[in-house]
Write a structure and sequence with these properties.
This protein is an alpha/beta fold. It has one domain: NAD(P)-binding Rossmann-like Domain (Rossmann fold). About 35% of the residues lie in helices and about 15% in strands.
Length: about 270
């Protein structure tokens, strides 16, 4: 059996699509997981795991769940574009509670950030992990906020973070954009494993994508934690290379469909945004 952490690991957002995958895959590797979500866990709870319903907005519950944990895999919160008032509680206050729990326990955090924190960068410009935030909506804005909170807790309190800008994590590629952004479930799992077991991470940014030849992204901190993706979207290229939208805005920017949600500009910007 693969190496497992010595301390329990808290997994938030456990009832979501990615949380369920991680619960199943990490439990199979012998991990002791504390699963939590505001929604009921829809599957049988895997061996070695416990599930406790909790609201991220309830800081006391989060502190209790994190007690004794060495790692928090934070996949909880609103995971799609929604009005600002729906984002505030789980994605802003909720994240504060996660980092306060990590500070108290001396735990590391893997923050499930998103490519939507940089979604208004153009697709033709390869990005490093130090690129400017260019969120494409309130959801992406909350992810930029989350990364900044991780950095603040590192510099102010020494809380380690791995900030993973997830591209598109699905069982298979669905369209041309995913040929650049796809992250397989196996690569997601191995990234969580390495983020947890690495000796030191500081506050690291990693592009959450498989080994895709058409990637929009390049330099990040993956080597420092010993992670290398093994899957690739490339075999899907013949099937999906032509599957694009009819929106020039959506096809121009890395955030894809999120960039045109609520879009009200009369004319697009005449070239790169900066």
């Amino acid at each position: 059996m693969a190496e497992a952490p010595q301390k329990p690991v808290l997994l938030t957002g456990a009832s979501g699509a990615l949380g369920r995958v991680l619960a199943r895959n990490l439990a199979a590797q012998g991990w002791t997981l504390r699963l939590t979500d505001i929604a009921p866990f829809p599957d049988d709870v895997p061996p070695g795991c416990t599930f406790t319903p909790a609201d991220l907005d309830n800081g006391v519950d989060i502190l209790r769940l994190a007690e004794g944990c060495g790692m928090i895999l934070h996949f909880g919160g609103i995971s799609v574009e929604r009005p600002f008032e729906e984002i505030v509680g789980p994605n802003l206050r909720g994240l504060f509670h996660i980092y306060e729990a990590a500070r108290r326990e001396g735990a590391r955090v893997l923050f499930a950030s998103s490519n939507h924190s940089i979604g208004f960068h153009e697709r033709e410009v390869p990005l490093d992990d130090s690129c400017q935030f260019m969120p494409d909506g309130y959801y992406g804005l909350s992810k930029a906020y989350g990364e900044l909170m991780g950095r603040m807790y590192w510099y102010k309190h020494g809380v380690e973070s791995v900030l993973v800008r997830i591209g598109s994590s699905f069982p298979e590629v669905k369209d041309a954009r995913m040929l650049s952004t796809w992250l397989s479930y196996d690569d997601l799992t191995s990234l969580c494993v390495r983020a947890t077991l690495a000796g030191k991470t500081g506050c690291s940014v990693i592009w959450g994508a498989s080994d895709n030849a058409r990637t929009y992204w390049r330099h990040d901190a993956r080597e420092s934690i010993g992670w290398a993706p093994k899957d690739s979207a490339d075999p899907f290229a013949p099937q999906f290379a032509g599957v694009v939208s009819d929106s020039p805005i959506q096809e121009r920017y890395q955030g894809g469909a999120y960039t045109i949600m609520g879009y009200s500009r009369k004319t697009p910007p005449p070239g790169p945004l900066f």
